[in-house]
Amino acid sequence: MTEQATGAPRPQPRPRHGGAQQPAPVEHVTGAQSLIRALEEVGADTVFGIPGGAILPAYDPMMDSGRVRHILVRHEQGAGHAATGYAQATGRVGVCMATSGPGATNLVTPIADAHMDSVPLVAITGQVASKAIGTDAFQEADICGITMPITKHNFLVTDPADIPRTIAEAFHIASTGRPGPVLVDIAKDALQARTTFAWPPVPDLPGYRPVTKPHAKQIREAAKLVVEARRPVLYVGGGVLKAGATGELKVLAELTGAPVTTTLMALGAFPDTHPQHLGMPGMHGTVAAVTALQKADLIVALGARFDDRVTGKLDSFAPHAKIVHADVDPAEIGKNRMADVPIVGDAREVIADLVVAVQAEHDAGRRGDHAAWWELLRRWRDTYPLGYDLPEDGSLSPQQVIERLGRLAPEGTVYAAGVGQHQMWAAHFIDYDRPATWLNSGGLGTMGYAVPAALGAKAGLPDRTVWAVDGDGCFQMTNQELVTAALNNIPIKVAIINNGALGMVRQWQTLFYNQRYSNTVLHAGPGEPGQTPQNLGTRCPDFVKLAEAMGCVGLRCERPEDLDTVIEKANAINDRPVVVDFIVHEDAMVWPMVAAGTSNDEVMAARGVRPDFGDGDD
């Protein structure tokens, strides 16, 4: 089964710096020219960035490149998130560029975001001249030191001769093993100096050898546990998407008959509409998914890291389950939950080997009986489905908006979500049946991610429809990148789920702070009471006018009867970015929910009701 068959993005080819390939003739160039040539050779076709003093030498030869497109963003944070969206949507390495000092520090948030979500990213920053490093020179910042905890690796380049090798190594490190961000900081004088360029360079990474092939004995042990289990669950994380292993996962799930849960970072790894899919686990996961993990006797974790949003109170998580934990990063195994069978390896190779091993068990007459387990699972799924109430005053329900958005979108649409209530509703009420169609900031939870990430995804996949699903709070953090989208002919679509508040924080204030809404109302001034969406009058800002001022089409929808018409109008506009301001009810909440710090056994279904699991508690 090939990656093309599964719809998974094709990983970016490794840099061409080895084997029998003969080196190209040596060229005499500047360090800056060497940098651009190296980017061309590693296959970088798009760079998101902003020029400035220290990186300026690199921008001059970029004008002469016919293979590298530069997209001028409005803020370096936008460059980083756009590079992340590009990488998540295409499976290739995303590239962003910034100058020294504040330019580099503005990349810290997207670098940390990419680190948490294992996104292959290369951030290239200019640095002050090498003799000025350490003198507190103008626009100097120790960006290597600052980003050391949040990069997979970083480089400080002061010798122009090192540029080609460093770029090749950066792309190799970012895209292999557990993907992640790599920083390349280049001193200005290294960019200006004369040097030689030859390709491919000789790599020098003696300590970097990711393990991709799993140990056969561990695979056999895992297969044995799978066929012996009465209540198995496949707990699927984002590593399965990173490995392009969605086809193999489907084969394994159908072979074992086990239920599947996909984390927030793994939506689309297994079809949402597949009968074995229980939904997303965790703090706002489905009741069936959360409870299945709690009651399981075996959890097969594939490319997942037992994150606190999934486990809830860790010492009460899945108390009766044996754990098979497969991950390409050995540091993740046993970090939060001890594994009975640890497997280090690439998810695609692990799952493919598991399929063979489980089939061998079946051929030997050993097969699990999960009939009673599925009877319970179906009862939980049928009794506690995802749903929502329509507002009694006839206003728009945010869940209804997102559900219709998903139903009316063209096939293959990519969705990038911000962080908050709208993120959870987009995870719940849109079906993700294909990989790389759901982009979000999972680990870091970065507000402002959606618009620039959608821009990056659309730049990498220009023939696909890309919707950014954003909240009014998130949107106001990075909406300036709509100018970037308009001027660069990148026609993304933005759905603002506008409830006039920082919705998820407001939900917590409703539930845990006696409805004291301290500084979460976005449409009222200091000391003013919160207003309802029906009596706001003039909005500040007016998102329709703001969109139009930035070269986009601005639309607004306030009534359920207009919902489909407005969405269809937005879908029909493909020559400019479109922004739709959906005015929704402010009191909607995300259910189910597990309160922070509590056990997943305390999951609350719709309106905070504790489910009655009956026999499932046995």
How would you describe what is shown here?
The chain has 618 residues and is an alpha/beta fold. The protein has three domains: 188 residues, 3-Layer(aba) Sandwich (Rossmann fold); 168 residues, 3-Layer(aba) Sandwich (Rossmann fold); 186 residues, Thiamin diphosphate (ThDP)-binding fold, Pyr/PP domains (Rossmann fold, 3-Layer(aba) Sandwich). The chain is built from 24 helices and 20 strands. The chain has a six-stranded parallel beta sheet with strand order 3-2-4-5-7-6, with helices on both faces. Helix 4 packs parallel to helix 6 and helix 17 packs across helix 24. The longest helix is centred in the middle third of the chain and has 17 residues. It is globular, with a radius of gyration of 25 Å. The two termini are 40 Å apart. 56% of the residues are buried. The N terminus is likely disordered.
Question: Descriptors for this entry?
Answer:
Rossmann fold, 15% strand, 35% helix, single chain, 6-stranded parallel β-sheet, 618 residues, alpha/beta
